[in-house]
């Protein structure tokens, strides 16, 4: 029986994170991903392709084991957050093995955080979908780590997600009963998504 007096549970399904391990990887190898770490007015930022910046702070990185994020969750009445990578670190345009290295770093560290605080966080995977067979293996590995789903981009190197090459990924996600969060990679629609959009 449902207790009507109990407040509704609020679950944040759109909570991005760049973990400390991913930050360390990008500090070391960012040139391979067209990503640099810069400082401006005493604040550190990711600089992506010399055009876009993203802040590096406790809320984004979780250097405090999620304390700043939990404080925001408390203020907003959010009981649990599903942690996904910040979209730019999906890196759908880089070599598959490099994208896999970032995905594995994200998956391992998000799984560890969710394991430490299962009442507040669940983790979602990242996979190198530009190499579908590799993405399947990483999705299966992430599932074993306890991640409940995966976030992917809306297109992969100009290819739509319903193309035959991606069938192995969809089959694997279905077999694992994994939630798939399809997240726009660009702020404004381009390519396949732009064809049905008007301003």
Give an overview in words.
The N and C termini lie far apart (about 50 Å). By secondary structure, the protein is α/β, with parallel strands linked by helices. The protein is globular, with a radius of gyration of 17 Å. A 5-stranded parallel beta sheet has the order 1-5-6-7-10. Strands 2-3-4 form a 3-stranded antiparallel beta sheet, with no helix packed on it. A two-stranded antiparallel sheet has the order 8-9. Strand 6, helix 5 and strand 7 form a beta-alpha-beta unit. The chain has helices at about 20-30, 60, 65-75, 95-115, 130-145, 165-175; strands spanning about 10-15, 35-40, 45-50, 50-55, 80-85, 120-125, 150-155, 155, 160, 180-185. The protein has 6 helices and 10 strands.
Keywords:
199 residues; alpha/beta; five-stranded parallel β-sheet; three-stranded antiparallel β-sheet; 6 helices; 10 strands; 35% helix; globular
Q: How are the SSEs ordered, and which strands pair?
A:
Blueprint: E1 11-17, H1 20-29, E2 35-40, E3 43-48, E4 52-55, H2 58-61, H3 67-76, E5 80-85, H4 96-116, E6 121-126, H5 132-145, E7 149-153, E8 155-156, E9 159-160, H6 167-176, E10 179-183
Number of strands: 10
How does the overall form come out from the CA principal axes?
A: globular
Mean pLDDT figure:
90
Strand sequence of the main sheet, in spatial order?
A: 1-5-6-7-10
Helical coverage, percent range = 25-40%
For the sheet with most strands, the description reads: 5 strands, parallel
Low-confidence stretches: none
Report, as a whole number of angstroms, the end-to-end distance: 48 Å
Encode the helix/strand succession as letters: EHEEEHHEHEHEEEHE
The helix/strand class is alpha/beta
Rounded to an integer, what's the Rg over CA atoms? 17 Å
The fraction of residues assigned to DSSP E strands is 15-25%
Number of helices: 6
């Amino acid at each position: 029986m449902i207790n009507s007096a109990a407040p509704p549970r609020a679950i944040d399904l759109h909570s991005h994170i760049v973990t400390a391990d991913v930050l360390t990887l990008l500090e070391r190898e960012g040139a391979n991903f067209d990503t640099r770490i810069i400082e401006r007015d005493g604040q550190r930022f990711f600089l992506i392709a010399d055009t876009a910046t993203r802040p590096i702070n406790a809320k984004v990185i979780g250097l405090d084991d999620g304390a700043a994020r939990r404080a925001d969750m408390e203020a907003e009445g959010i009981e649990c957050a599903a942690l996904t990578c910040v979209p730019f670190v999906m890196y759908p345009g880089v070599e598959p093995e490099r994208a896999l290295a970032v995905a594995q770093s994200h998956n391992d560290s998000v799984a560890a955080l969710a394991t430490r605080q299962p009442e507040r966080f669940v983790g979602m995977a990242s996979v190198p979908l530009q190499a579908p067979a590799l993405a399947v293996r990483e999705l299966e590995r992430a599932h074993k780590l306890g991640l409940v789903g995966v976030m992917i981009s809306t297109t992969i190197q100009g290819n739509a997600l319903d193309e035959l090459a991606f069938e192995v990924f969809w089959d694997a996600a279905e077999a694992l009963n994994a939630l798939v969060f399809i997240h726009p990679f660009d702020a404004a629609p381009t390519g396949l998504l732009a064809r049905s959009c008007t301003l």
